[in-house]
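Structure tokens please, single chain.
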Amino acid sequence: MKRLFVISILVFSLLAAGLTAQEKALTLEECVGIALEHNPDIIRGSFTVKMAGRDVTVALSNFLPRISAGLGYSHSVLGPSSDTRIDPTTGIPVPLQPYEIKSWSSNAQLSASYSIFNGGYNIYNYKQSRLLKEQARYSFDDTRQTIIYMVKERYYNLLKAEKLLNLAEETLKSADESYKKAQILFQVGKVPKSDVLKAKVQLETDRLSLIEAQNGLAVARASLNYILGRDVENDIKVVDNLNVPEMEIGYEDAKKNALANHPSLKSNQFGLKAAQAGVGMAVSQFLPKLNAYAAYSWRNEDFNQIDSFFDKDYNWYASISLSIPVFQGFSRTALVSKAKLARSSNREALEQAQRDIDLEVKQAYLQKEQAKKKIVVTESALQAAEEDLKLNKEKYSLGAGTMLDLINAQVSYFSAQSDRIQALYDYKYAIARLQKAMGMLEK
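Here you go.
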């Protein structure tokens, strides 16, 4: 019995520890770390970079000789022949080959080949593979920064949804209090029934707003879980932080930073250089090729004689060959044309990337400035709405105000609170977006 009690305590403790760990609130930095480790796009991007690195190794191997070695052993038996001949001595037909003929053969070989010159193809291929690796690396960095931005956006959106839910609950509570107050005043004959009906309508409207806020919070949680690479059904809590970060930078400086650091731009720059190397690879097909080959072989009926590999029954030879391509059915011309088209396409992609970054910086910068101004405006509006609500509550309690005035004041107050919350998180969004546009969004 005592042992069962101890086990129960241990199980309860483990479950409690598990629940505590599960309910631990995550900071923004922790969420970013989880996403960079588990997000599928990040994982696939890292594989792409690794594969590009393997392509560099394959291209480098073309500069090395090809060496091969081999051993062989064969045994054959030729049976008696069914063909006959006339024995000139006896005049009797006899088989052409009356006995089995057995033979044995053993061989060993060592060969090496080397491409001395193949029109520069190997050089351009190695150069292209290195450039494509750099392109993949910067493309992965762009994906990484995009994921970090999306984590921040959804993290802030979850915080905003929590704030808006709290606000909706507070709004509903206030509307319920106003409805009950209107009922009491109506029962004592101080207000008309229309005040009760107006309060009832506002109460149900705020109840609908609460349902929307609850749904918005559930969607925000699922969205953050999704970008973190976790099950969307997981419960997740985040650390609330309403501090407004400061970011003072001019538009021209932001644009310069973007052109110098944006990983998408760098990825396209390396893509264009790789396409240029591809043109060199295609042109190399028109040039002569110089190859060298050497081989050493040994053959004997008895494999045990292989110790005489360098003394007897050997054969070696070396060759060097020059081949000049003359005509290959216009395939080389088509390859050069295709490579030049790929280069033109990559050049257009680079120019488009520059235009996209210019627009992204412009939009992000204007959004930041707008959000910063909205914070000041919403603070002022919230103070005025709070004072107006206080006055209307006092007037209605004294019978000097109307329910419509009170409802309008309540709506204005909670709308001002909502605008204030929205402005704070919009500014956080805008800063993260501008950092991403500049290619400077750090973990």
